[in-house]
User: Fold these one by one.
Assistant:
Number 1:
Amino acid sequence: MSARTTTAAASATDRKVVKPTPAELMEDTGTGLDYGTRPDRMGGDLTPIDRFYIRSHAPTPRLDAATWALSVEGNGVRGPIAYSYADLWNRFPLVSVVRTIECGGNRRVLFGEEVGHKFDGTQWGRGAIGTAEWTGVRLRDLLEPAGLTPGACEVMPEGLDEIKARRPVPLAKACADDTLVALAMNGEALPADHGFPARLVVSGWLGAASIKWLGRIEVSEDPLWVPWNTEDYVLIGPDFPADGPSRGPAITALPVASLVELPWPARLRPEPQMIRGRAFAGENRVASVQYRIDDGPWQDAPIVSPETPGAWVRWEFRWTPEPGEHTLRVRATDDQGNTQPDSTPWNELGYLQTSVLAHPVRVEPPLRTVTP
Ligand SMILES: Nc1nc2c(c(=O)[nH]1)N[C@H]1C(S)=C(S)[C@@H](COP(=O)(O)O)O[C@H]1N2
Ligand SMILES: [Mo]
């Protein structure tokens, strides 16, 4: 074996994630674990698996579906129960839903630029969001055979990765129609980086609730406190009072935000073109999207995709930009009347950036036509 092949083989096994993460499709945040989707390569209504963002706190575990099992246990069920991979595929109705997953830390770098601070944590631009068709079994169908006790109130999935990621969800959310134990993503068995053999999909909530590589589900009659609802994925700051053992309120449903499908800064030609983007409002519906160029008026950017609860919408508008430097602003409004604000409330860990972004756009001078 040549020295070169040895190095290639070594670096291949040292990789912490499994799928390729080419720079044409994904933004490397530098942790080796976390890759965002390039905003100008988001694909169609669904994000293709080859570019779906990855957010993992530890290397992707390689799990064998043949020996894997998922247990349901805790003082909130009458007796523990365990399912094999085949049980999940064969014993329960399979459900498919299109849902968006977004990391609570998405846009952290832009939040930092807004407030003049460098937040700790994964240095996300705008790409920690993606939408897939998830196929699997309703979580409530898996809880029911274990016999929920009348006092059961919290359901805590646990991952089989090195950190045993855990994040409780209240029973009502756990039993929602669209809270799934997903086995497939966009019609393929779940890829290793996205939680094979099975992950939770908690519609409209921060990505951290959608635990990957499920191994165990605890049902509890008591509130559960774990790092992901006491010190991480909580809002810490003067606007956010501490909550029992937690340093601040735990993030649940995500607030409305939007994305322009252009690089940052964008470079455009001075010709008629369609500007496209997405908006997502967590558990709410996106009601409208508006855009503004420089100091011009706010105008409607029509929504052009089907509206699916818990999934992003796509919007677009036509623009013939003049050469020079421009600022493009977009603001989405949800069906509860919430509009993206002008500034994001300060919180120590830089979560939930939703303020209107000033997207820099440089428009090239027109091409000179060469006359003979
Ligand atoms: N077991 C486990 N589940 C996890 C995580 C993790 O590190 N370990 N990361 C969470 C976070 S913070 C997010 S944003 C989503 C990302 O899902 P994705 O990598 O499929 O995009 O997974 C969540 N589930
Ligand atoms: Mo996340």
Number 2:
Amino acid sequence: MRSRGVIKALGYIGAAALGLFAVSSVLLSRHQESHPDSSRGQRAADETILKKLEGIEQRVREIVKTLEQSQQRGAEQRPKEPEPQPQPQPKKVLHKKLFPNSFLFSKWGGDLSEEEQKEAQQLFEQFGYNVFLSDRLPLNRSLPDTRDPKCATKVYPKDLPTISVVLIYLDEALSIIKRAIRSVIGRTPAHLLKEIVLVDDHSTNEDLSGKLDEYIFSIHQEKPDLIKRVRHQERLGLAHARISGWEAAVGDVVAIFDAHIEVHNQWAEPLLARIKADRTVVVSPVFDRVNYDTLDVTAYGAAAHAFDWQLWCMYESFRPEWYKLNDKSEPGKSPSVMGILVADRLFLGEIGVLDKGMQVYGGENVELGIRVWTCGGSIEVVPCSKIAHIERSHKPYARDLSVPLKRNALRVAEVWMDEFKTNVLVSWNLPLENHGIDIGDVTERKKLREKLKCKPFKWYMDNVYPQLDTWEDLVAYGVMQNDLSDKFCIDQGPVPGSVPILYQCHFYGPQICYYRQSGEIYIGGIKSHKYNNNRCLVDPGEGHVPGLHDCKLAKEKGFHMHWNFKQGQAVRNRSTKRCLEIAQGRDSYYQLVIQTCSGQHWRIQHLIKDL
Ligand SMILES: *[C@@H]1O[C@H](CO)[C@@H](O)[C@H](O)[C@H]1NC(C)=O
Ligand SMILES: *[C@@H]1O[C@H](CO)[C@@H](O)[C@H](O)[C@H]1NC(C)=O
Ligand SMILES: [Mn+2]
């Protein structure tokens, strides 16, 4: 009786843990933008998952222990808690922590009164960063010089192009925008700063009208007409907002930034010098991270800006040539920009600025990257130019950013990716035909591509972004279901772990499978980059438990990892004569097993080539 109760509890919590994993893996992919470099970021993400699961395991162990103890003790009295010892009175008043689980207070705010905590937490939830603290820091606070030491010794020409700085915002905190303006004025040579263009994509907080007007008025006492304003009467989305900032700008060069930034000393000169030397280069500064809770600056090294097949942006190493230079102050070529971009104003216009058909958030930066490279320009990240950028805990555009990103990514694929557009559909687990998502009208963008005589996407893959895996021999993808039970799907199973399972279908990442021409079956995702490893279904050769192992490792160890499969037929390895099947365990639930083929049939959701 007793052990059964415990097992039930375990089973239930195990399922909850799996559910949590499904959700957390989805959430994590959403935050890739924030990671300093892809591999480091991914590792950190994996570690977070591991920690979470370890935490859950620990909880399970504790619960099991408690259950056992309480059952052993039966009606016995619980041992008495030790009497609390009188504590020496601290001199400082200690306030109760009202939000012990809020990320805002994990490192900050220990000395806040309860009233202050409430205010700070409310502002944090509204804006995604510490507005309470921002309101109390000087607008002209100094920032640490995080550049490579060589940068400070560089000398730039005096006669550089002028620059218009466009700050885009949507419901940003007033003090954050003021600090951005203050830093741009204070740290850009006055003869180069043509103007600051504020673009308000229809914010709703009232601070951003009256009080911001007052601040601008005070700046105009000293620098008349330095600040221009563009206000949208309805929300147009990030791409559109950026375009309207470009349209309002008149400087030789336009810099399009988020408004939750502060520029570092000498941020503009290296960018302007690069554009003066070659007007077809679109450049990006390097962002340092401003932590959303403490507003401290964490230095980031320079890295290329890139993306995966879903078009989430991410950091990536530069091409090998950059490392051979052995000079961290030198600009590096980059497949794309992350959103912050600086370009010759007229050149940006000639190649089509940004795609006005993009909605809400995401994808427009990748579209720009591919377009610049394939239509005659290039993109560079310039290490001597640094911007401190707040990584918000959440973004205001949409609760689930994957919805607009998916739609915008399909647009990019349709216009720019030729035969590789399949990969975007595959990565979002959409069918190749009739995916049912309205991507808007793309005829103008297709015409633009023709007019500019842009190179094919294959050229971009070969020459600009060879780290991206072409997925050329992929034949099928999606969830895999067995004829005998269509409520259940193959699932990667507990993580960490190496045993795939059968689990109620939820259609999230952990259940998506990929079948390659080589006979490999991946479970729980496919990596976009050649340097990352996938996890392959393996027949361990003995016993009935299937395995799921890093494919490269499995190959080295000589595991049986090649499967014959046709739609609606068996999944089988001919040489071992065994099949992936399902069988009822002692508890009468179906389990995933490897056994002598009994004629079971599998279906995979989508086919790329006929199977
Ligand atoms: C900020 O401005 C104040 C008042 O103008 C000035 O006294 C102070 O030195 C400035 N601080 C920095 C770091 O520039
Ligand atoms: C079955 O497994 C063996 C050993 O891994 C492998 O050499 C063989 O190619 C597999 N059979 C098929 C049809 O993939
Ligand atoms: Mn941002």
